[in-house]
């Protein structure tokens, strides 16, 4: 007999025999009758028996043990009970230590840090499983969209000789006696692949930032969806694609993932298209009206960014928008300048948080060389990258988007760590 999931019991024929396996989430022995709740990936189901022998064997059962059962589908006597299983056979496959380190009943809340220490137990909760089913679906829809639109998925090195996004957040390590770093982004490689003629590339892979940030939106290792496209007119082509992709992904989620969204009590609102484009200069004006005075060239900090998100939402009735034309001084060397002060860089904002940074790149060899020097970087560190700009490279641009942040904000999670199976931050290197 093939094992079925608990959710399938509700659709199974009353009277039919089925086999299930999972974790014993609740056990109630009442003398002549016994109840066990079996939980698996897809939900849970009630098991019942009044068989003396079976009840005796259930005395050995501890919470969270793995069990395998055979039984008959029957209607529950409870009004809202749906179908349940009348036990015919019962086996403990793996007995759990009765001293569970965290409360698994959902009655006593456990703080996030302790939950993460016991992540494997924590993930058994249906609400957590729902997050990672949705995360998996989000990755799938993004890939589906890009494959349909003729993008090529790339896998670039994570052990690198130089950083692309500034020295402050580089993890360094020993590489056969030489210094190497963990990749901060796929930036340099994706640009090189456009010089190679691949035209439209993307990657969804890990990147590393030695950020000493203790926030609800920074990690030391995160999943970076990096994307680059050649023969663009300007950065508007890239923003248009983000819009399309965002609408595609959220529409798919709302259509195909209702069960998980319901578990999390979520209804993802589709933002209106086009997403507003707010220039950095206008953003500063909007903030100034609220008494937040920033000079051109200053970063919009976390709190101000949140405020700006509220102001934009009030004005344009949307959570999704772009901040465009950032000053060059606060953007990396590879971005294309726009006049003396500004650049073709944008951020994609959602829910008051930056989900992606992107823009058009400088593809002129001389200008790029002078920008690298201008940022105080060593040309030697970028030799291979720079060389590719000598032998023909089209105008291009792209973006990098944090998948973890996307999941956090689409699913309305309080902390980015909730969106990651085994998060890494300055305090955490295990499990
Ligand atoms: O804004 P960032 O640093 O931009 C780049 O890496 C560029 N190469 C992108 C480009 O193509 N121009 O990182 C991109 C995104 C951020 O918007 C954020 O969502 C995420 O990556 N991110 C982080 N997520 C979690 N923890 C961190 N420490 C992150 N740093 C960046
Ligand atoms: Mg950024």
Provide an overview of this structure.
This protein is α+β, with helices and mostly antiparallel strands. It folds into two domains: 6-99, Nucleic acid-binding proteins (OB fold (Dihydrolipoamide Acetyltransferase, E2P)), CATH 2.40.50; 126-419, 2-Layer Sandwich (BirA Bifunctional Protein, domain 2), CATH 3.30.930. It contains 13 helices and 18 strands. It has an eight-stranded mixed β-sheet with strand order 6-10-11-18-17-16-13-12, with helices on both faces. A five-stranded mixed beta barrel has the order 1-2-3-5-4. Strand 16 (345-350) and strand 17 (353-360) form a beta hairpin. Helix 5 crosses helix 7 (235-256). The longest helix is centred in the N-terminal third of the chain and has 23 residues, at 126-148. The two termini are 36 Å apart.
Q: Layout of helices and strands, plus pairs?
A:
Blueprint: H1 6-9, E1 17-29, E2 34-40, E3 43-49, H2 52-58, E4 66-75, E5 83-94, H3 112-117, H4 119-122, H5 126-148, E6 152-153, E7 159-160, E8 172-175, E9 178-182, H6 187-195, E10 200-208, E11 221-230, H7 235-256, H8 258-263, E12 277-279, H9 280-289, H10 302-316, E13 320-324, E14 337-338, E15 342-343, E16 345-350, E17 353-360, H11 365-374, H12 383-387, E18 396-402, H13 403-410
Parallel strand pairs: 3-5, 6-10, 12-13
Antiparallel strand pairs: 1-2, 1-4, 2-3, 4-5, 7-9, 8-9, 10-11, 11-18, 13-16, 14-15, 16-17, 17-18
The protein binds 4-amino-1,4-dioxobutan-2-aminium adenosine-5'-monophosphate (4AD) and magnesium ion.
């Amino acid at each position: 007999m093939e094992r079925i999931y608990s959710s399938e019991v509700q659709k199974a024929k009353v009277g039919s025999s089925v086999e299930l396996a999972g974790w014993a989430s609740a056990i109630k022995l009442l003398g002549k009758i016994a109840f066990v709740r079996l939980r698996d990936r897809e939900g849970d189901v009630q098991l019942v028996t009044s068989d003396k022998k079976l009840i005796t064997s259930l005395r050995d059962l501890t919470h969270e043990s793995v069990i395998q059962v055979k039984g008959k589908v029957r209607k529950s006597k409870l009004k809202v009970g749906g179908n349940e299983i009348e036990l015919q056979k019962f086996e403990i496959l793996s007995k759990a230590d009765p001293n569970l380190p965290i409360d698994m009943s959902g009655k006593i809340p456990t703080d996030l840090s302790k939950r993460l220490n016991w992540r494997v137990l924590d993930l058994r909760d249906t609400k957590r499983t729902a997050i990672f089913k949705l995360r998996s679906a989000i990755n799938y829809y993004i890939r589906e969209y890009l494959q349909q639109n003729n993008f090529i998925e790339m896998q670039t090195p994570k052990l690198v000789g130089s950083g692309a996004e500034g020295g402050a957040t580089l993890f360094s390590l020993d590489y056969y006696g030489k210094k190497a770093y963990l990749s901060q982004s796929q930036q340099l490689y994706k640009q090189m692949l456009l010089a190679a003629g691949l035209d439209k590339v993307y990657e969804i892979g890990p990147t590393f930032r030695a950020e000493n940030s203790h926030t609800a939106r920074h990690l030391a290792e995160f999943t970076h969806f990096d994307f680059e496209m050649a023969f663009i007119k300007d950065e508007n082509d890239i923003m248009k694609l983000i819009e399309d992709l965002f609408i595609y992904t959220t529409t798919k989620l709302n259509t195909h993932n209702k069960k998980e969204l319901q578990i999390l009590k979520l209804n993802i609102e589709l933002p209106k298209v086009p997403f507003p484009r707010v220039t950095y200069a206008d953003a500063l004006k909007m903030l100034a009206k609220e008494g937040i005075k920033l000079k051109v060239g200053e970063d919009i900090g976390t709190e101000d960014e949140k405020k700006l998100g509220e102001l934009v939402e009030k004005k344009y009735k949307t959570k999704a928008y772009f901040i465009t034309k950032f000053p060059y001084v606060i953007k990396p060397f590879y971005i294309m300048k726009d006049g003396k002060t500004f650049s073709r860089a944008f951020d994609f904002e959602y829910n008051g948080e930056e989900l992606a940074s992107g823009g058009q790149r400088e593809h002129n060899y001389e200008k790029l060389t002078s920008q690298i020097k201008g940022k105080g970087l060593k040309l030697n560190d970028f030799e291979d990258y720079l060389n590719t700009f000598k032998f023909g490279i089209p105008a291009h641009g792209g973006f990098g988007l944090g998948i973890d942040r996307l999941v956090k904000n689409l699913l309305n999670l309080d902390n980015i760590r909730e969106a990651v199976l085994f998060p890494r931050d300055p305090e955490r290197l295990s499990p």
